[in-house]
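Interim report, section 4.2 (structural modelling).
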Amino acid sequence: MPRNIYSSEHEDFRASVQEFVERTLKPRAEQMLEVKAIDRDIWKEAGSQGLFGLDIPEEFGGMGNDDYRFNAVAAEVLNGFNAAVGSCFGIHSDVCPPYIVDLGTQEQKERWLPAMAAGEKICAIAMTEPGGGSDLAALKTTAVRDGDHWVVNGSKTFITNGYQADLVIVATRTDPSKGAKGITLFMVEDGMEGFTRGRKLDKVGQEESDTAELFFSDVRVPDSNRIGEEGMGFIAMMQRLPQERVGAAAANVAHAKQILMETIEYAKERKAFGQSIGSFQHNKFKIAELVTSIEVAEAYVDDCIEAHSEGRLSAVDAAKAKWWSAQVQNDVLDECVQLHGGYGFMNEYRVARAWRDARVTKIWAGSNEIMKELIGRDLGL
Ligand SMILES: Cc1cc2nc3c(=O)[nH]c(=O)nc-3n(C[C@H](O)[C@H](O)[C@H](O)COP(=O)(O)OP(=O)(O)OC[C@H]3O[C@@H](n4cnc5c(N)ncnc54)[C@H](O)[C@@H]3O)c2cc1C
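Predicted structure of the assembly:
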């Protein structure tokens, strides 16, 4: 089915992101796997291509764009290349900037946004703690006021870009008696005394992305690094999670769609019993089902992208898009592995890596269970 949410401007932007993928990312695909990171020069190149400043106002070095469809296009193209790069760039350019653009002071915007837009400073957001990620309101990392500073203690884990980040938006507890209303966000900067990183975590997929533990031991953070009002951190996160989730949904569908297209080509070429494996009725019907489920998921996600561009996407609809697309992505990729036979289990085949890379999408940014919890609550259950 033809998609109808994108104009020629979006398609021109898609072509420019694709060109960046071909020129800069594809030749470095193996190197990124070896070093388990995206090197700094790649970040800077992406910044100079305008990939990171979509939401950032022009006066702070960005594109000043409030049409979310451009963000979705970037997510689609990057995830068509590789889910790890898609997630690292997505956290930096799609998830983090709104906190500063919407809630930051003029001075904070001037200090952080131009370097983020240029890819010179990498940003991460640290909500999850070793003790739990789903129950965000129960987070334990503390920030205690001391004059015009706050003293931060605690730890975070599974933080995308955590190892390389120059800037980390950290969710802390500033009032232990107030539950969700006692949470405040701070920008912790590389080099602040007492801020250290653990090892790069060893994951079953997305090896190219750096995912790290972060430790805060009496880190003195100036009040001028507080993002938004004291006690408003939880609300700030809840208000911005729908954008993270619709971005994740666009990424999930695009990732599975690309690998499915490659699998269809494989099914046409690979022979068994003297004929292409795609011509066996079972496989033909299976592929027909997969294409249908991708297109149906894409149609719902497209509606959500359009709704978000127009400022009318609800948190519940974003939750539906996120869990459903993650499920479809994982189901489709599992069948793609099956269609590749033994090659589908070999790391040198994109399909094998994509299958591993996709598993986390049912867990991060709010697990499928938490998404269903939100939907169920909205139904009055
Ligand atoms: C590769 C990767 C990158 C990540 N990047 C980031 C990042 O950049 N920043 C960040 O802050 N976090 C990040 N995360 C963390 C991620 O968001 C959390 O892992 C996720 O929210 C789940 O939290 P948890 O791991 O503590 O699981 P838990 O909260 O311990 O949950 C364990 C299981 O219990 C289920 N569960 C929990 N509560 C309920 C309930 N009420 N009803 C039903 N089931 C429930 C969950 O769905 C899950 O299946 C990342 C994680 C990974 C793996």
